[in-house]
Design goal:
The structure is a homotrimer. By secondary structure, the first copy, chain A, is mainly alpha-helical. The first copy, chain A, has eight helices and no strands. Helices cover about 70% and strands about 0% of the residues of chain A. Chains A, B, C: Belongs to the UPF0126 family.
Chain lengths: ~210, ~210, ~210
């Protein structure tokens, strides 16, 4: 498999994970199947479209290549058929979202590098790609994005993943082993931080955490 | 009238209809005339700007050609002068929004085709153009977009219109007769679905519709 | 200092002022330091990124040039260290926001002109740059943007600043004296309108102002 094909496979898998998180939210909000498919498209493709627009690469892949429609259709169909309870909704959504985050911070950084961006730009775009879909999902659902939630560690794992990807790439160590290792690290970091309620200091020194 | 001029006339008419829907919402929300003009611009131009940015055609028409300022100014002035009651607000907004939807799914698809996009991309961009302004309007007004409302058929008419436009164009049948016929079909589909409360299945099988 | 360097200095100063307004909002909303930094980036860079995407100039400066990361980092650090009370939150946020507005309506207009845009496009982009970051800030914080608030004069000072910049530039009178004079005028206009509760007519003639 060529590098370009591998990068696209990574991207499509990330689209699928984020698309499932979109369809899960649509299910809980009481949207219909079309709304589920549209939210799956918005969340799955949103980060990548923003990345491609900022990279100024012409028509974004998600619009130009029909293969990008498959993951959202699959995601909406899976949620329609398999999902019969809202009880584990939050856990499932967080797990799929974490998987998307882990893949997109890598694919976003690599795509920027292959288009000649400098390492700082590549890391910024990796983080933007990773968090973009989720922010669009939360804004559309009329909630403050979990990106800004003081009780969530969300951007930090994406930043670590993007920075590691740029570093490992520049050292020439990016392989079929190190790539998945970075993705696993990001996924575990995000999920453990969520389960253990890790948090960072508030925006103002000496401020008491609301509810603490 | 050349094809390019006809396409622009179609686009400007769509901008006007969406701009009126923006000014009507501004009126109901108690915005001032400047807020009304700005929301008219955002809703009227939003879909087209997103389309042009994704098509990567350089500066979007709405910014590059001052003629695009006329419809929002007209819309805000009309609402200021003529609109004296909120009683029929929802009906009027839905009708103008449906007219904009009908024109934009055609003009968006055709613009993408004339810039060399493949049919699938053209249909996706037609739908994005048609629903983009309304989504921006609803997000700005702090509401869940009607695009995702399970009680509304909104994206489906736009998709049918965009797909028919791409099909009819590729068959060489797009004329001054078939174009308006597609627009009328989309408009009637959207309005009848709204009046008759048509709906599609929810995102999850076997789920009870909230409130049903 | 060359013109390009002066324009970038103006832009960076505007990024800083808007970034402080973002970190102040993050502080009041109870976000953590990472959320504060991210909101500082979004508000400080948002308007400029939208401007650069619409101008189609390639990768936006805020992503391409690491120096744009300094103002948001400074802003989040300053708010973390110095801000210990929410009492004057609204006043401070409005003052920093007004300063950002004053600089961005000038830098946005000038950047568009230097890329060959016509004067109308340049003024539109100046206004978009100036109001863009604040709109993103308010939408993310789940509030109706103050851009549309009938009790705020927000877009008008930005429009006056952008129009004066385009006019003075085309007359060849844009200097180290007239530039800051326009910025001061926009800042004073915005702040005095806010303090004195100036307002413009509502979107509909003869409508009573809510609460009036």
């Amino acid at each position: 498999m060529s590098f370009a094909a591998g990068l696209q496979a990574l991207d499509l898998l990330g689209v699928f994970f984020f698309a499932v998180s979109g369809s899960l939210l649509a299910a809980r909000k009481g949207f219909d199947v079309i709304g589920s498919l549209l939210l799956a498209c918005l969340v799955g493709m949103g980060g990548g479209v923003v990345r491609d627009v900022i990279l100024a690469v012409g028509i974004p892949s998600a619009f130009n290549d029909p293969v990008y429609l498959i993951p959202p259709v699959l995601a909406a169909a899976l949620v329609y058929v398999l999902f019969n309870s809202v009880q584990r909704y939050t856990s499932l959504l967080t797990l799929f979202d974490a998987a998307g985050l882990a893949l997109f911070c890598i694919s976003g950084t690599l795509k920027a590098i292959t288009y000649g961006a400098n390492p700082v730009t590549a890391v910024l775009l990796g983080v933007t790609t990773a968090v973009g879909g989720g922010v669009l999902r939360d804004i559309t659902a009329n909630e403050v994005p979990s990106l800004f939630n003081a009780r969530e560690i969300y951007a930090l794992p994406a930043f670590v993943g993007a920075a590691l990807t740029a570093l490992v790439w520049n050292l020439g160590w990016f392989t079929i082993v190190t790539g998945p290792a970075i993705a696993a690290l990001v996924f575990v970091f995000r999920v453990v931080a969520w389960r253990r309620h890790w948090c960072v200091p508030l925006a103002v020194r000496g401020w008491h955490r609301p509810g603490a």
